[in-house]
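Re: the 152-residue chain
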Amino acid sequence: MAELPLPAGLSASAFPAKLWRLVNSPRVRSVRWDSRAQGLLVHRSLFERELLGPGPAPGGGGAGAGPVPRPFRATQFSSFVRQLYRYGFRRVPGWLGAAAPGDAGGWLHFSSPCFRRDRPDLLLRLRRRSAADRRRPAAGREGRRRPPCGSR
């Protein structure tokens, strides 16, 4: 399946754009779509080695694929997960296991209504929530016609 382009108006340096490129890259082995293409699977130890560790990232694809770029400033997996939560992703409870037949366990499952493989246009609705947004009750947001994903 050909990768869908990022929507116009989304900065390539924004967290959602970086995450979109990672999950759709054949060179990155530690992040992939779930079986329904409506969630994100992340293998913690592989993600740490492939995308967060010091030094150049090892190549993730086949021969000649080259190194995987370091997309995040974070060097700790917990910082990456915190970013997911700030953008409205939620961990799917009770899901820890193989991403595909033959895979070893260890995959974590995250989901957001605005992160779908066939809907890159929804990325524009992923907004980083501020501390004030996280404290605000769900009924406190009036006047918004289309709230960003991740808001309550």
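Strands lie at 31-33, 39-43, 90-97, 107-111.
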